[in-house]
Specification:
mainly alpha
Length: 87
């Protein structure tokens, strides 16, 4: 579904999407370990990385949280600053 949406809606190729998702997953893992560029953004947005049982949430679920945060952010500058793609 993500590949279809990316190619149709945003004109993003499969390889680009795959690379971006790998990068996102790596940065989420770093943040879950208390380090990395995404840690501060996650804290600022109040996004929970872990489920109630302590396991790491899925990338799909986390992407949904980031999408909601971007949608609700006031102003383009704030959206850019908080974007996981920037980190």
């Amino acid at each position: 579904e993500l590949r279809f949406a990316a190619s149709q809606g945003a004109g993003v190729g499969e390889n680009t999407l795959d690379m971006a998702l790998q990068r996102f997953s790596r940065r989420v893992g770093e943040a879950a370990n208390g380090s990395g560029e995404l840690k501060g953004i996650i804290n600022e947005l109040g996004i929970e990385l872990r489920n109630s049982d302590g396991s790491l949430r899925t990338s799909e679920s986390l992407l949904g949280d980031f999408a909601d945060a971007m949608k609700n952010a006031k102003g383009q500058g704030r959206r850019r600053r908080l974007s996981p793609a920037r980190a």
